Amino acid sequence: MSTVYTITASEPVNQQIYRYLRHEIVTCAIPPGCLLSEKDVSSRFNVSRQPVREAFIKLAEAGLVQVLPQRGTFVRKISAQRVADGRFIREAVEVAVVRRAAQEASATGLAALEHNLQLQKLAAERHDSQAFLVLDDEFHRLIAESIDCGLAWETVENIKATMDRVRFLTLSKVSPPESLIEQHWKIYQALVAKDANAAESAMRTHLQEMIFSITPIAEQNSEWFEAV
């Protein structure tokens, strides 16, 4: 944890620290079982311990860390049950969003989605997993924003932290970017055709990928997962 980040005045300090740590946990830079020290993190970000403590609380609420009294704050192993629960809630929200987007998405919104898909293709060609994950999230966020419903995406983002850890692990073998891009294109094409049923079907298929990928990923990375 030697990287030093610059805290800006653009948003609350605890939010920035949360986002940085969330990213590092999700992308495996900070592995399960790792002890997070308030002192070390506050030194790293050059801030007081209070915003660090607040960021730790938010990470705990997202299921990424566990605060153990008298012992410290540790990065949690992945809970398959939490992944399943998060996926179920995400599907319910995003299916409703994509059905409405099929009826209401503007030409500008659709153009933004098409541009995003082109960037996804470039990221896949460069084998840039982290850039692809950011673009993947942006694709889903853009659908919500195309119907002026950014709150729907905020809701999804708040519950999918544990899912994101599995997503990162699946990119190399189980769910390669090329397969996910194809699924995204089907969602996009249904939106262009204003076909709500096709958009719903494509979105469900896409989000259910997690159901089929988590078992082989858990088998390949058993040390990352909680015992059932």
UniProtKB/TrEMBL annotation:
What are the recorded GO MF terms, alphabetically? DNA binding; DNA-binding transcription factor activity
InterPro entries (UniProt xref):
GntR_C, TF_FadR/GntR_C, Tscrpt_reg_HTH_GntR, WH-like_DNA-bd_sf, WH_DNA-bd_sf
Top-rank taxon, per record: Bacteria
User: In what residue span(s) does the HTH gntR-type domain sit?
Assistant: 11-78
SMART domains for this protein: FCD (SM00895), HTH_GNTR (SM00345)
Sorted alphabetically, the keyword list is: DNA-binding, Transcription, Transcription regulation
Q: Which SUPFAM superfamilies does this chain map to?
A: GntR ligand-binding domain-like (SSF48008), Winged helix' DNA-binding domain (SSF46785)
Keyword Transcription regulation in the entry? The reply is yes
The protein, known as: GntR family transcriptional regulator
Query: Which species is this record about?
Result: Pantoea coffeiphila
Lineage in the entry?
Bacteria, Pseudomonadati, Pseudomonadota, Gammaproteobacteria, Enterobacterales
